[in-house]
Amino acid sequence: MDRLDELAIFVAIIDAGSLAGAARRLRRSRPAITRALAGLEERIGARLIARTTRQLTPTEAGLELAVAARRMLADYEESLGGVAAAPVRGLLRVTAPLAFGRRHVTPLVAEFLDLHPELQVELVLADRNLDLIEEDLHVALRIGTLPNSRLVVRKVGEVRCVLVAAPAYLQRRPAPKRLADIAGHDVIANVGAGGDLIWRFGGGGQSSRIAITPRLIINEVEAVLIAARAGRGLARLLSYQAADDLAAGVLVRLLPEFEPSPSPVQLVVPSGQRLAPKVRAFIDFAASRLLHTSVIRPEPGR
Predict the structure, then answer these.
(1) What is the pLDDT of residues 20-64, one digit of tens each?
(2) Prediction pTM value
(3) Start and end of every HTH lysR-type domain (predicted)?
(4) Which fold has domain 161-258?
(5) Would you call 42 exposed, middle or buried from its count of C-beta atoms within 10 A (0-12, 13-18, 19+)?
């Protein structure tokens, strides 16, 4: 077995916390993972992973090797960058949130396909975080803080949660000046993608939670936008979702001083794997395009 591949398997075992998890992550059989670990331990002459019926725990020797292995794998990946690019071909599976994927990922995927005629892309749009290993996905675009630290992350921007309303609505009902004023307004609630009836705000280094009593509850972003444009009340959206309407004056941004901290926009891949040329090329291309996308660029002075 290739020695770098052996180290990548070892790192994946530590990151996944189990042989089965490493096998899923690397798309290998569990016996192959077990043999690789046993071979590495035999060659080194030390136990690297302490095994119990409940968990795997790296030994002191294992922890030392993991640090060195990560450094070697990173050096290897960096060295590849100085070599002529390998062919970009085969199937690339990418996932992104629905609205962001429609507006910003689909166009750059189409452009990427034009650059690589031997490549096929499957774009999976979903407003839930799909498991990259279980779903056999190569790259994901995620919005928000990631609970899974076993992902390799590349930040490409950030978005804010904005409070908006249509000018026609604000002609009938004065714009809120304080958070407490929201209670006197009609509210459109977006309960899609895990949304609830609590609105969280920031401002002044403090956080606030406001329970809302919506007149209209919707589970899909585009429908929330339609209702907000029609003057049905206050709505809360991610800044990229409302960007076009705000720029056109169709919607008005309210109480920006109380917006919570921005959420990162990130490209992620599973850790413990050597990136295929198609994955590396797509990440570099997508990052270069998204970093210049105004709707996710950090706002000056915020």
Answers:
(1) 888 887 878 888 899 889 988 888 888 999 887 677 888 989 888
(2) 0.69
(3) 1-59
(4) D-Maltodextrin-Binding Protein; domain 2 (3.40.190)
(5) exposed
